[in-house]
């Protein structure tokens, strides 16, 4: 077998992640490798921490990128905070709440599930009932932005309930960070994790995390060793500590990937967080207008929709997988399929980071309209791109 260099096709990424990456970030990946204990690299590490403070809106000392994807950030939060015998309330309204349950159970703890229908936000009354019925729970874990459904829950209210019952909060912000407000300090979130490949528009493979002082006290007071050596924050902080230039070797950091994260965070700071939130919101409204022109509707009720992840109901008689395949083959556009209970029922159209732009909105709408029309589907009066343009130019 003859093997040659791999040259990926050009794609427009509009699924649930990864998102398109700006040329500045790709160029950063190609810069010369230096040692992960080099004084210049350590200086950049400190800048990354400061930029992540901005992105998370926090002053938490323990704020850093885990050298693995968002799933490792999730596991880092659970293995450090949860011990055998603990009770943890987990809010489940999609795939990723279910993964939280798995993490709790693998820590030897009991997961008390608060379950809501997929596509609906976390029910605060159900959560409060669970807290009342289970005094002494260690933490409340929830997904802020459920990528599998496109729904956003009220993180501030969930955290306030947890505080009322003296429980820690563990929040998944993989899809929300830099796309909608994530206010870690204001909401008093104890542990929050995200990923680099969504609204930060960096390459996959890193998970920004942040832990409150209250969370760190919990970690310092553990009765058992953290079950994961690689994700033990007591060890990781020896490498990411800001105290001078001396760092303890923990693992060989992904040097070039961290260059890329640094660049993407610099770009976020240049744009401004509030401007990034407004951009995602406006492009979502334009996409919504275009979809409605085609007679298509969104799964999630208005007011709870994620602007950066849109779950679109599939019209009757349409082969949803064929639509996705044709959009990829004919236009080079990737959109996502439904997961779990929503498999075959929705398309997931992402407007994340660099993929959240007027160009992306009009491109995906035109491609979707053309594909559906060619397949004989009823697309109403059409004019999806024009409907979106009215919103974009308003």
UniProtKB/TrEMBL annotation:
Modified-residue entries (N6-(pyridoxal phosphate)lysine), positions: 198
Family recorded in the similarity comment: Belongs to the class-V pyridoxal-phosphate-dependent aminotransferase family.
**GO terms, molecular function:** alanine-glyoxylate transaminase activity; L-serine-pyruvate transaminase activity
- Which positions are annotated as binding substrate? 348
Pfam families for this protein: Aminotran_5 (PF00266)
Report the cofactors. Answer: pyridoxal 5'-phosphate
Q: Which UniProt keywords apply?
A: Aminotransferase, Pyridoxal phosphate, Transferase
Domain of life, per UniProt, equals Bacteria
| Domain Aminotransferase class V intervals | 35-338
A GO biological process this protein is involved in? glycine biosynthetic process, by transamination of glyoxylate
Q: What is this protein called?
A: Alanine--glyoxylate aminotransferase
Q: SUPFAM superfamilies recorded for this chain?
A: PLP-dependent transferases
Q: Which Gene3D superfamilies match?
A: Aspartate Aminotransferase, domain 1 (3.90.1150.10), Type I PLP-dependent aspartate aminotransferase-like (Major domain) (3.40.640.10)
């Amino acid at each position: 077998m003859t093997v040659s260099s791999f040259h990926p096709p050009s794609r427009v990424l509009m699924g649930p992640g990864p998102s398109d990456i700006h040329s500045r970030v790709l160029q950063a990946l190609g810069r010369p490798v230096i040692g992960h204990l080099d004084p210049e690299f350590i200086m950049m590490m400190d800048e990354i921490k400061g930029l992540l403070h901005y992105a998370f809106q926090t002053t938490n000392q323990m704020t850093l990128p885990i050298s693995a994807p968002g799933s490792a950030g999730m596991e880092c939060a659970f293995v450090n905070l949860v011990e055998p015998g603990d009770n943890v309330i987990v809010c489940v309204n999609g795939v990723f709440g279910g993964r939280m349950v798995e993490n709790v159970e693998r820590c030897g703890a009991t997961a008390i599930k608060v379950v809501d229908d997929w596509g609906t936000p976390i029910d605060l009354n159900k959560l409060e009932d669970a807290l009342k019925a289970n005094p002494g729970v260690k933490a409340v874990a929830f997904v802020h932005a459920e990528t599998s459904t496109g729904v956003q829950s009220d993180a501030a209210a969930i955290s306030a309930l947890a505080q009322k019952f003296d429980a820690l909060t563990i929040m998944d912000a993989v899809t929300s960070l830099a796309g909608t407000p994530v206010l870690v300090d204001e909401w008093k979130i104890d542990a929050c994790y995200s990923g680099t490949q969504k609204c930060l528009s960096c390459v996959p493979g890193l998970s920004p995390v942040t832990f409150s002082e209250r969370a760190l006290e919990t970690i310092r007071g553990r009765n058992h060793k953290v079950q994961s050596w690689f994700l033990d924050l007591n060890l990781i902080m020896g490498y990411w500590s800001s105290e001078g230039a001396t760092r303890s070797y923990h693992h060989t950091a992904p040097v070039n990937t961290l260059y890329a994260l640094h660049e993407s965070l610099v770009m976020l700071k240049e744009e401004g967080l509030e401007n990034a939130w407004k951009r995602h919101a406006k492009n979502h409204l334009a996409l919504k207008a275009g979809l409605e022109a085609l007679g298509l509707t969104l799964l999630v009720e208005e007011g709870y929709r994620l602007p950066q992840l849109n779950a679109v109901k599939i019209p009757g008689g349409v082969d949803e997988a064929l639509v996705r395949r044709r959009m990829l083959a004919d236009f080079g556009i990737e959109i996502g399929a439904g997961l779990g209970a929503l498999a075959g029922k929705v398309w997931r159209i992402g407007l994340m980071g660099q993929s959240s732009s007027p160009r992306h909105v009009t491109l995906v709408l035109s491609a979707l309209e053309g594909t559906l029309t060619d397949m004989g589907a009823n697309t109403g009066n059409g004019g999806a791109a024009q409907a979106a343009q009215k919103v974009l130019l308003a």
